[in-house]
Design goal:
It is a single chain. The protein is flat. The strands form two sheets. A three-stranded antiparallel β-sheet has the order 1-3-2, with no helix packed on it. The chain contains one helix and five strands; from the N terminus they run E-E-E-E-E-H. Helix content is 13%, strand content 47%.
């Protein structure tokens, strides 16, 4: 996600994001590893040209999952019932300031109609009986 490695000259080794790396070349059954210097650069996932002030953001999107299970009361196990169950999918994205503003602008009507609340508490797994 939103990270690239740019090979740089050793003279830039003191710069932020620059670290030692290695490049391995394999020909047939022989390999050689050459020391190299790379700059690790984060970029905006929507606009790869943006590399300044880029940060990782996590967000959740609500949805509905279809669950299928045996219906109760029949006893013969031949009938199945389907139902919709609320679900949440989490995402991570690296965004610069302009893309983050675009995300906020897109969500603004939904946030304006919503009520602020605490994050949901994690559900405890059921123990084996």
């Amino acid at each position: 996600m939103g990270t690239r490695f740019i090979e740089v000259d050793e003279s830039r080794r003191g710069e932020p994001g620059v670290r030692k790396g290695g490049r391995t070349l394999t020909v047939g059954d022989q390999s050689i590893t050459q020391e190299t210097w790379v700059k690790v650069e984060a970029y905006d996932d929507l606009d790869p040209a943006v590399t300044e002030d880029v940060h990782l953001h996590t967000f959740a999107v609500p949805g509905m999952d279809v669950r299928v299970g045996a219906s109760e009361g029949d006893g013969d196990g031949g009938d199945f019932e389907t139902r919709l169950v609320p679900s949440v999918q989490y995402y991570r994205i690296e965004l610069g300031p302009e893309s983050l503003n675009r995300l906020h602008d897109a969500l603004e009507p939904f946030i304006a109609a919503a009520r602020e609340c605490e994050p949901p508490k994690p559900r405890r797994a059921r123990g084996a009986k």
